[in-house]
């Protein structure tokens, strides 16, 4: 039974092409999903409950597919038994993984500073992360259908939730939103640094594995587009400062775009 399950998870498909039918389909889906969720919100008798459920259960959906992703990458059926073959480069704590954790955490906190910070992060930094991958998937598409579905659900949901949070007014478009979101991002960067250091100190990298959370490890070959050039030029502490500043600037651009769109919507209402 487990062998059959793993075969299903490894079901092949032609690798989707950049702006081919599969890519375009998933460029449409997040906006349709956002429209449906926003309409559902307007018809809801308990709007705050609606918001909490949408954020949390979207994160649950992403988490379920992440589990399938990890099973596909790390478990193999060989010699008639189940074996573990850890692919550490796919460990689920990249920048694009953090919205899943933030969304799950919103289920633990009522409306307050922590909840607002998590939602502000989902509406700014997370939208930027999702937008980058959705516009240019790069090598995230492979020849396995479950993985392609998983990565698109993960990244497209970031756009959907961001639109939804701004539309409902649960996240405001003033500058304080960025100040609320920034600590969440800093915590994510710090945790990635700790994990990268632990991987190095444990000998994981020496054993030939790749472990580069947030793509900021000083022990791995730079691989993040554009930022890799910075890593080759500047000392590590300065690289981190550039990383935080650039991503924060991008998150602020998302905030400004949301502000402009909502003002235009209000003007035409």
Explain this structure.
By secondary structure, the protein is an all-alpha fold. It contains ten helices and two strands. It has a two-stranded antiparallel ribbon. The protein is globular and about 65 Å long.
Low-confidence stretches: none
For the residues shown, what is the average pLDDT? Answer: 95
Mind summarizing the main beta sheet?
2 strands, antiparallel
Helix-strand string: HHHEEHHHHHHH
What structural class do the secondary elements suggest? mainly alpha
Q: How many individual β-strands?
A: 2
**Biggest sheet: strand arrangement:** 1-2
Q: Percent helix among the residues?
A: 55-70%
Beta strand %: under 5%
Given the structure, what is the number of helices? Answer: 10
Radius of gyration: 19 Å
Oligomer: single chain
Coarse shape: globular
Distance between termini?
Answer: 56 Å
Identify the notable features of this structure and list them briefly:
269 residues, mainly alpha, two-stranded antiparallel ribbon, globular
